[in-house]
From TrEMBL:
PANTHER family: CHROMOSOME 12, WHOLE GENOME SHOTGUN SEQUENCE, DUF2461 DOMAIN-CONTAINING PROTEIN. Transmembrane segments: none annotated. It comes from Mucilaginibacter galii. It comes from the Bacteria. This is TIGR02453 family protein.
């Protein structure tokens, strides 16, 4: 479980996003950071039993994202993120296919997986895989359980025009027009601070796992 004090710190940081406040509350941040690292360690252990791509020897510290924002090219100069996040949970280091947990109070946390906005050869390869083997993807994303958990997979950002090389009468055109291939579920504060938080997140990742397998197969 995520400790309620961790959510309280993030909420306070959102209201006081300055270096001066952060330094004055560095001890609170350190405790929150360690709390998220501990959660990541338990999640890695649980996920490794569901997904062979998750190594149970993975260092959880390396899976917790930096809270410091890169403000060099941003109009928003606030120095810190207003969430804490866990990612980089799989062995695949070349692309962003995997799992991502964002922790943000106010029922704004979520778990997501898949591939967000693939580019170049990757998007071409994924569309080709859909065109050749759409049944493999629909057997995952069109099940009642997947839809109940993550919603309609096709209702993500899509091209307004046809993808190059595909016709409007292609029976899978709505899948082929997708820009991202993501499964996403919001998490309530009480779910993350409850005793079954790790089990819940691991179970949700296990439901995303077949989608990750399809996407990895497409680009490899």
């Amino acid at each position: 479980m995520i400790h309620p004090d961790t959510l309280a710190f993030i909420a306070d940081l959102k209201e006081n996003n300055s270096r001066e406040w952060f330094q004055a509350n560095k001890e609170r941040y350190d405790k929150a950071h360690e709390d998220v690292i501990a959660f990541a360690g338990k999640l890695i252990e649980a996920l490794s039993k569901e997904d062979a791509g998750v190594d149970d020897s993975l260092d959880p510290k390396k899976c917790v994202m930096r809270i410091y924002r890169d403000i060099r090219f941003s109009k928003d100069k606030t120095p810190y993120k207003t969430n804490m996040a866990i990612g980089r949970l799989t062995k695949n280091k070349t692309v962003e296919i995997g799992y991502y947990l964002q922790i943000e109070p106010g029922n704004k946390s979520f778990i997501a997986g898949g591939y967000w906005m693939p580019q170049g050869e990757h998007i071409k390869s994924i569309r080709q895989e859909i065109d050749y083997n759409a049944a493999d993807l629909t057997s995952i994303v069109d099940t009642a359980d997947f839809k109940k958990t993550f919603g309609e997979f096709r209702e993500q950002e899509k091209l307004k025009t046809l993808p190059k090389g595909y016709d409007a009468d292609n029976e899978n055109i709505e899948l082929l027009k997708l820009k991202s291939f993501i499964a996403y579920r919001d998490l309530k504060d009480k779910e993350l601070t409850g005793p079954n938080a790790v089990k819940l997140v691991a179970q949700l990742c296990a439901k995303i796992h077949p989608l990750n397998v399809f996407l990895n197969n497409a680009i490899n």
